[in-house]
Amino acid sequence: MKCVSGFVARYGVRLACGVAALALAGPALAQDGAADAAAGEAASEGFYHDIIVTARKRAESLMDVPVAVSALGAQDINRYAANDLQKIGQMVPQVIIAKTGGGGAGASFAIRGIGSSSLDAGIEQTVSVNLDGIQVSRGRLATQGFFDIEQVEVLKGPQALFFGKNSPGGVISLRSAGATKTWQGYARAGYEFKADERFIEGAVSGPISETLGVRLAMRGQKMDGYMKNVAGPFTIPDDPDYTRPGAGDDRSPATEEVLARLTLEWTPTDRFNATAKVFVSDYKDNGETAGVETICDTTNNTLMLGAGEFVADPYGDCKLNGRRSSTALPKERAAQYTGARDGRPYTRYKSVLSSLTMNYELPTVTFTSVTGYWRYANKGFDNFDYTAAGAVWGRNDDTSQAFSQEIRAASDLDGPFNFVVGGYYEKMRRSTVGHGQIFALGLDPTTGLYNNWALRSRNRGTTWSFFGQAIIDITDNVELAGGARWTWEEKFARVGHSYMHDLLEQIGGFLPEGQYVNGHYRDDNWSPEVTLSWHPSDRSTLYVAYKTGYKSGGFSNPSSLASDATANDLRFGAETAKGGELGAKGSFLNGALSLNAAVYRYKFEDLQLTSFNAANATFSIRNAASARTTGAELEASYAVNEALTLRGAVGYNRAKYLNFAGAPCYSGQVNPDGSPCVTQDLTGTALPRAPKWNMNGGFTFDTPLTDVLALGFSADVNYTSGYWMQENQNPGSWQKGFARLNASVRLHEVEDAWELAVIGRNLTNKYYGVASFDKTLGTPDNIGIAIGRPREVLLQATYRFR
Fold this sequence. Notes:
802 residues, mainly beta, Maltoporin, Chain A, 22-stranded antiparallel beta barrel, 48 strands, 7% helix, globular
């Protein structure tokens, strides 16, 4: 086969050609199992296991679906006890999920270098999460844990056609375990030594009657923390009457969480079934910045506004090493600060996510209804200068609720034509209240409060969309699929200060107390998609796809407003994507060898980015740039024999700004002539959290020791090249390339009735950053960094009953 694609030739990417040749040779490879002994053994035993995915909202084989999908089963997830989105993301190349500590949206999700900032509560993620059919695009979802997961599918590139709103960067789709035909379940407990983390979880599942099944799963977790807080007492010049007490807790993040999920599956007839799931979370920790430490060139500085000078944190060491210096608020001050409790930082997050999926099957068409409701409430108080000086304090309340309804019909006709059509509706409400203090103004004489202001924002929105795809079998092994989604969105926002310190009112510069900015946004969009796929054999697929993506605009929710703020200052427009990819995938050697490859090129317009306003120390969203991603990826898995499986993946991605002449400057940045920097030109530079290279490689070996006992080993190394951690490219925000080593050993009963495992993650104890931000009131070299978790060594025991 000769590859003549200009796109492939231009960029020197030959992966698709190589895998295409393998796909054409698939039947020969499968038959010629004697090529070598290992392959022959694999072929004779038969290793082919169909992985079923729902990337096109219908059950299809992973090797047949013409979409770039990385799939993880329960066995993959449990291999390294991946019980949250960040750990799950680490198992898939070109995925970075960063839980940040700067308030705002709470987290950033990125696939192939495309993602959204986390620094503004008004932004929704460019990469969305789909949990049991419910679309979620709020970063707060990364706060909670995930467990009892049956399968994870990471869909890369724009996914507008089947996954509704806010998915131009991709979708992370999770499906929790369902009810079982017989009574069974498991119990699991574990202890992680470095962070003193302990947990217990379990599930029980089975039939209540011939038509009704149930599954109840629960998990409880508590952790003392993997970072040390070394802050001690400190008195600052512009506030000499109060000594900062030092760390409220000597370790962080100290977390507690209880999770529970109830599943009911009802199948009264062969044609109708319904599945209801309710997933609740109650999470606590010791502050949103509990996973943040600061780095700097020389000294950890904080500007004292009253004294007009910087003071150095005597406890900070300016290194990324798992040691931080962050004080609590004095108790007497906390009593006069709204929601500060005893002055120690804290977070409390509660969530309820429920779904109801109903299917009605006719001989040629299946009708599906998916109803979803998600509500969360997040409250927190923290020190946002991250030092012992304690000059910047914030109390943030963020509540959100969304109701969604999707209805679709998918055909299963005998002829060459099939279709999927449907509609989607969502109603959203969200409110935030932020109490801030960055000035030592003393007590407000009117209210007796210590905080400087409170900003309240109320947001509501409505989404309607309709989608359809036609699938035509041109021949027995050639398929043409094309469709589009039309989306209409309307949003309203009301933002203003519900409280302002009397002295700030007199000083001016802020929108006065009681005045509100009201905004209205409306937009619609068509997102088409076309895919041509060819199946050279039963277990191989070649495809070429043109895709588009769309994420609507809205309103920024900053922490404060300037006196001249208008709705236009807060409003930002839609973000769009278009481009295409070539893909090749196949299963060979009777299923022993699986290959999955793709090359892609997408252009993104009007990226929604956050910029920092030094005048009032707030972040806001704006449409600021266009960008392009160009890359290639290859995943492979090879079952050498029944005991040994090898796996590997490599991804190359060049994600750069095509136009970013008005990029924000970092705090304290100056131009070459020494004048203050207002904007900078980052055209041609890399996007944040967009490493050029991602590489994974590993193995699993599992063999019986006796008729009863078996022993298993796993090890995986993943490498990520360097990347920027923030959009303004502060020199301190460059994260150098790094590697992580995960490994596990397990002693288990041959039928997996019980298991005792030692699981290690990041065994080389690499400290690295996933996101960063200029330190408020700091010098230009001061950076706050949300770090990835360092070394973990977990002892875990599991018992299963059937």
